Task: structure prediction
Amino acid sequence: SAVISQKPSRDICQRGTSLTIQCQVDSQVTMMFWYRQQPGQSLTLIATANQGSEATYESGFVIDKFPISRPNLTFSTLTVSNMSPEDSSIYLCSVEAGFSYNEQFFGPGTRLTVL
Amino acid sequence: SQQGEEDPQALSIQEGENATMNCSYKTSINNLQWYRQNSGRGLVHLILIRSNEREKHSGRLRVTLDTSKKSSSLLITASRAADTASYFCATGPDRGSTLGRLYFGRGTQLTVWP
Result:
């Protein structure tokens, strides 16, 4: 298993600004994932972040809007750039760390509100 | 879409009753997982069932998988008020270009009344 922390836990931001979300894992992991969960909706994968390589973005998400860093095997950041109210969501990071392939452990999430 | 679809969207029961949630998906999978989310917080992994398994138990949880029908069910027995949460199924595709990805359904909101 893995214990994951995220900072900040929540934030209220103004339109046009950017917010960087941090994700810290208590063990070294190869794959980290960033998800978005819009109000009342399911989770949508934004990108996969592997250490030492560029993040792989899902359809509908671009690096200019959601730049990701992965400087080492225990840490990653997601930046939400030039925010608009439509970016109001919960952002979650996860890692693949279970005994079974694909078993993921999630951080507590960052609840973002854009005014 | 590879997303799973849960049914029902909402379920309300009394403590002690059993709760059954269903999930259908569209593509071939390596595994199917169920997660719980309390009040918009992080997800908690409940159980994973591989594509070559048909049934799995964990405490009060029972999961079945029917790959011919591309469907799964999650049964929570003797439910408690603390089971109130949103439950999501997530499918893990076969290895390849989508390595590691999980595709989540829309979730079932379970409410258990004392």
About this structure: The mean pLDDT of chain A is 92. Chain A touches chain B through 26 residues (CB under 8 Å). Chain A has no helices and eleven strands.
